[in-house]
User: What shape does this take?
Amino acid sequence: MRHMAFVEFLGQLKQLTPEQRKRLVWHLMGRESAPAPRATAPLPAPTGCPYCSAAVERLGSWGQSHGLKRYRCRDCGRTFNALTGTALAHLRKREQWARYADALIEGVSLREAARRCQVDKNTAFRWRHRFLRDAAGHRAEHEAGIVEADETFFLESFKGQRRLPRPARHRGGVAGKRRLSAEQIPVLVVRDRSGQTADFKLEKLDAAHVMAALRPLVDQEAILCSDSAGVYAAFARATRIAHRPLNIQHCPRVVDGVFHIQNVNAYDSRLKGWMRRFHGVATKYLENYLGWRRMLERYKTTVTPALCLAEATGRHLNS
Ligand SMILES: [Zn+2]
Assistant: This one.
């Protein structure tokens, strides 16, 4: 390997997940094959009663059932386990979940995830969306300081649906030029300088929908940076939040050094680059994929199967 290629290769090692690091070390040590990723990861403990929302102090132990610890709520008297009421309740083959979470972290294909977990492709598909259901709703709830907003678009897709409202496209496809606007699903991405990130699949890119997404999110003292689209100006006027519109076409991309939308743009392009592997995703699942990407960005190289399982059961360990 040429020296420069080697330097580049070393730089890429930073992106490895803990599981991939372990496998690389095994490989370098000349072992025949690396051990399969650890199948079991601890399931996160309940944070309260799933029935009456009593606090965790009101829960007592109640033996075991189906290999899971049971709890009893002293307030409502009901018993349950760590999965009751979560997206993972009633899924089978629990012994494969950590391995599946690892496949999610790596972003492998359904076929490969199915192979690793010894399940069929339909199961791998069902698991994907059960594992991502809660992560899809886990986005920043408050952004402050310099807040960058920008919109990006995904091609509308009816992938997986039996009856298509129009003729099928193949491999992600290309939007017909004439109907471009109707076939693009707008996603509003908002990121502040501390890395808090939220994104919203919008029904329509108009002032009302942008307002509904931004109003509860953006701090009153924030400075909103966006392109010069009228929807952001309308939001800023209505909320009296400071606004630095950037006329991307005609002005310098950066105003006064700090006012730019380069962080949110970089996020968009990482999102788009990562999504390419799916060859177009069904619009009805788009939010799950957005949440998946957000989860990977949230934990970066510290992401583990245990964290994925915590996300999947709606127990967010950090924001
Ligand atoms: Zn209860």
Remarks:
- The mean pLDDT is 88.
- Residues 141-288 form a domain with the Nucleotidyltransferase; domain 5 fold (CATH 3.30.420).
